[in-house]
Amino acid sequence: MKQFWLALLFLGAVSSAAHARLPEPPPEIADIPVSMLLDLGSGQVLHAREAQRSFLPASLTKVMTAYVAFEEMKAGRLDPAQKFTVRSETARDWYRRGTSMFLSGQEHVSAHDLLRGIMTASANDAAVVLAEGYAGSVPAWTLMMNDAARRLGMKHSRFSTPNGWPDEGQTRVTAQDIARLASAMIRNFPDYYRAYSGKRQMVWKNVTLFSHDPVSGVVNGADGIKTGYTREAGYNFLGSAQHDGRRLVMVLGGAESEQRRANASRAYLEWGFSQWRTRHLIAATQKIGQARVQGGRVAQVALVARDPVYAVVPRDNSEAITLRIVYRGPVIAPIEKGQEIASLVIKVGDMEPGRVPLFASEAIESASPMDRLIHGFMNLFS
């Protein structure tokens, strides 16, 4: 039976102000029912309101459709140039139904263009064509969406549509879950993220289709991700921006109007950058600690972070910072280099702790019979 192993890595105080007051969030988000702002590099939540409350995502659903497509593309199972034939029934049902690419029956459209339509124009018909074309049916595609959600740890989210069209409340998410999805997309598929997110417009059939993204091109470093609106859901936004080496991910759910969503989104990101500062802790790929290995040629594997590790502290105050490594172990060999093994938990003052993934610095092969004999002999004297 596996159990948690904890290793205290670092304990230090930036100053004696261990209970400094945290910055007040911007007033623009005061009337937004659901909100969350995450610093991706440190894993720290800078602010949250009702982050575990279930809400209707509307077109934020399309981010999961894009994520599944990115998984299939990275695995080599989906070629962006692959073309799908638009079913006549799909064209009839979704033509001009909400936002649209105006796809016609029997038209051939590449996965690349469908993803452009999904992420930039929020095209409902594009999401359905991709789902049907690749998986064979919408239910088969949503099974893939829910499987991805399960693997990402999105415990309180469920998808029954590829585009977020109202489905009597079956499709629901939480801010915590949808921020986890965005974080995974940015970390796991950075090239695809840059290719498809944060575009202000696209041209299709000699028509310019526009994004409703309220921050890209407005907030410094903003590059997406997705708006959503239905009468039942209100105005939602999943956004991100990168500035001065930091990346923020934000979620807004249930705003009353498009203008309030825009004002809150911009103020939220700008507050996250202006009212918080970073304190560098560990260089990228620097060995941070070790995890015990079971059944390997060696008894331990070194742990590293892919990017520089930092903590975020209030700009005008300092906080005590503690770090610890958490993993479920011992880890069973064989282990691949770069395999995610553990988390570095970053605790700043009284804030909720952030988590940064840690990875194996090298591959560990399974032990040979001779290795096991040597290890057993050494354990007699340890």
Q: For the CA atoms, what is the radius of gyration?
A: 23 Å
**For the record, what is the CATH homologous superfamily label of the largest domain?**
DD-peptidase/beta-lactamase superfamily
Low-pLDDT residue spans = 1-18
Please identify the structural class as seen in this structure.
Answer: alpha+beta
Task: Write the H/E string, N to C.
Answer: EEEHEHEHHHHHEEEEEHEEEEEEEEH
**Helical residues, percent:** 25-40%
> What amount of the residues lies in strands?
25-35%
Give the overall shape, derived from the CA principal axes: globular
Across the major sheet, the strand order is: 1-15-17-18-13-12-16
Measure the end-to-end span: 23 Å
Q: Estimate the mean pLDDT confidence.
A: 92
- SS summary, helix count: 9
Number of discrete domains:
2
Largest sheet: 7 strands, mixed
Number of strands: 18
User: What is the fold named in CATH at topology level of the largest domain?
Assistant: Beta-lactamase
Identify the CATH class of the largest domain: Alpha Beta
CATH architecture of the largest domain: 3-Layer(aba) Sandwich
Describe the structure.
- The protein has 382 residues and is α+β, with helices and mostly antiparallel strands.
- The protein folds into two domains: 116 residues, D-Ala-D-Ala carboxypeptidase, C-terminal domain (Peptidoglycan synthesis regulatory factor (PBP3), Domain 2), CATH 2.60.410.10; 248 residues, DD-peptidase/beta-lactamase superfamily (Beta-lactamase), CATH 3.40.710.
- 28% of the residues lie in helices and 31% in strands.
- The chain has nine helices and 18 strands.
- The strands form five sheets. The chain has a seven-stranded mixed β-sheet, with no helix packed on it.
- A hairpin with a 3-residue loop joins strand 8 and strand 9.
- The relative contact order is 0.17.
- The N terminus is likely disordered.
